[in-house]
Amino acid sequence: MTDQIQPVGPRLNERAPEFNAPTTAGQKTLDDYKGKWLILFSHPADFTPVCTTEFIAFAKRHDDFAAMNTELLGLSIDSHYSHIAWMLNIKEKWGVDIRFPIIADLNMAVAQAYGMIQPGASDTAAVRATFIIDPEGVLRAMVYYPMNAGRSVDEIHRLLVALQTADKNQCAMPENWKPGEPVIVPPPATAEGAEARKAEGYDTVDWYFSTRTL
Is 171 an active-site residue? Predict the structure, then answer.
């Protein structure tokens, strides 16, 4: 009999790994964010070009995330002194304030718990991992990028909007969905429901594919 493969690291729709870590805004735990959405994201190192562009992009969208009841929390395997110096450097050179905390994960405890350490990329630096955690502490999405390609903060924001909208309206989202576009109606689970679908008032292509506007 084939052994069942056990997933390594965090798993979607389960409680996100707990953490209690020093940051540039003091000690932070997962429970500190209860009642809010949290975007936890890692970067390989402070004072590196790609990471700098990402932090500037997150900082510029800070208010957009805050308007969605969402906090930002960065992480790398650097000291909080390094983080503070980098934050000040970004403000001096680019005129951008980093208003979210950054975890100083020197012992790699948080990075290991979240699967941010990918041996194929590096044993000593976190890859560009992004985790969206809901107000109940449940991991709802995770995206990994390689060391040499920066992530899209616009896409992370779009994904957050899609998740929150899907939760509120009990629907699913098509490819690259944006506010104002039709959403997908969950397909019926019975043959009787499939027969009735065309008469339910949705924009139906076939019994399993129906959309509606919000």
Answer: no
